[in-house]
Specification:
This protein has 150 residues and is of the alpha+beta class. 27% of the residues lie in helices and 23% in strands. It has helices spanning 2-21, 60-68, 70-81; strands at residues 91-99, 101-109, 115-122, 136-143. The chain has a 4-stranded antiparallel sheet, with helices on one face. The longest helix is centred in the first third of the chain and has 20 residues, at 2-21. Residues 1-23 form the signal peptide.
């Protein structure tokens, strides 16, 4: 008997909801845009922690940051990859990542035609924002310029 009561209550609620809908269509209406308004370009969402694509065009701000840390980069390249101290490192590509500060990832060509992966941390809100050894890291693995594993 209790099952029949629950079924009757369910049917009553469904009928009330259908009546409340007043026969409105359930299919979404398509909206035709005016020809005068330009079509919106889809934007990729920016996620905190996601790294940007590699760029070969190094802007002035990024070049200045790399040059400020060049002494530390040279010292760490010498320690990790046995690069001569007279070597002048130059970034070939860079990418950024927003985390607790901004991580600048660089691919630096070393004398054996491979690329070392150098990361520099920039925290502009910290004063003084002087170059420090702990802000630069160099990976032990070497890469090709268009390596898919980086």
């Amino acid at each position: 008997m209790q099952t029949k009561t629950i079924l009757a209550l369910f049917c009553t609620i469904v009928i009330l909801l259908i009546g409340h809908n007043d026969g409105a269509p359930t299919v979404e209406k398509t909206i035709i845009a005016d020809k005068e308004t330009p079509a919106a370009t889809p934007k990729k969402p920016k996620f905190t922690g996601a790294r940007t694509h590699w760029k070969t065009n190094i802007d002035a701000k990024t070049a200045k940051l790399f040059n400020d840390h060049k002494v530390t980069v040279s010292k760490k390249l010498n320690a990790v990859h046995k690069v001569p101290r007279s070597f002048n490192p130059k970034p070939a590509k860079y990418s950024t990542q927003i985390v607790n500060g901004i991580l600048y990832h660089f691919l630096v060509q070393i004398p054996n035609n491979k690329y070392a992966y150098v990361t520099i941390v920039s925290r502009t809100w910290k004063k003084p924002n002087a170059p420090a050894d702990e802000n630069v890291t160099v990976r032990e693995q070497l890469y090709g310029l268009n390596d898919k594993n980086i």
